């Protein structure tokens, strides 16, 4: 029997969450230029919420185009800190800088999930 959904993400954590919730799924990584999408939306003045939603939708749409007969789940998270969005740190040094910046400060981790059929 074919799994119910396709997860449009290479995130091991997201896949584990689905398995732990007893949701059978396949994984197909969505090849989208997240930085280009994010920069374009920021230039238009989009909110962090809108950016998270747009990234999740872009991933779901991309995978759905090659698997039109399947239900596809696209997900993304955006960390909003004041009027900035912090991207995933690329190095341990950058991660430490983020932690120091966020320490004792208010921030939001916005999650988005989009289903395409």
What does this protein look like?
With 117 residues, the protein is of the alpha/beta class. It has a domain at 5-77 and 110-116: Maf protein (Alpha-Beta Complex), CATH 3.90.950.10. The protein is 42% helix and 25% strand. It is built from 4 helices and 5 strands, in the order βαβααββαβ. It has helices at residues 12-20, 34-43, 48-66, 92-102, and strands at residues 5-7, 25-27, 71-81, 84-86, 108-116. Helix 1 (12-20) links the parallel strand 1 (5-7) and strand 2 (25-27). Helix 2 crosses helix 3 (48-66). The chain is globular and about 45 Å long.
Question: How is the secondary structure organized here?
Answer:
Elements: E1 5-7, H1 12-20, E2 25-27, H2 34-43, H3 48-66, E3 71-81, E4 84-86, H4 92-102, E5 108-116
Parallel strand pairs: 1-2, 1-3
Antiparallel strand pairs: 3-4, 3-5
Helical fraction: 40-55%
Give the count of helical stretches.
4
- What name does CATH use for the topology of the domain at 5-77 and 110-116? Maf protein
Distance between the termini: 18 Å
Arithmetic mean of pLDDT: 93
Which runs of at least 5 residues are low in confidence (pLDDT < 50)? none
* Percentage of residues in DSSP E strands: 15-25%
Radius of gyration: 16 Å
Question: Helices and strands: which structural class?
Answer: alpha/beta
User: How many strand elements?
Assistant: 5
Short description:
This protein has 117 residues and is an alpha/beta fold.
What are the key terms here?
five-stranded mixed β-sheet, 117 residues, 25% strand, globular, 4 helices, alpha/beta, Maf protein, 42% helix
């Amino acid at each position: 029997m074919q799994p119910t959904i396709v997860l449009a993400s290479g995130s091991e954590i997201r896949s584990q969450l689905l398995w732990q919730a007893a949701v059978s799924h396949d994984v197909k990584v969505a090849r989208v230029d997240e930085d280009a999408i994010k920069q374009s939306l920021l230039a238009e003045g989009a909110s962090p919420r809108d950016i998270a939603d747009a990234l999740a939708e872009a991933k779901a749409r991309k995978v759905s185009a090659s698997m039109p007969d399947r239900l596809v789940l696209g997900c993304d998270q955006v960390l909003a800190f004041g009027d900035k969005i912090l991207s995933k740190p690329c190095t341990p040094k950058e991660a430490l800088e983020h932690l120091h910046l966020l320490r004792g400060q208010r921030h939001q981790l916005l999650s988005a999930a989009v289903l395409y059929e």
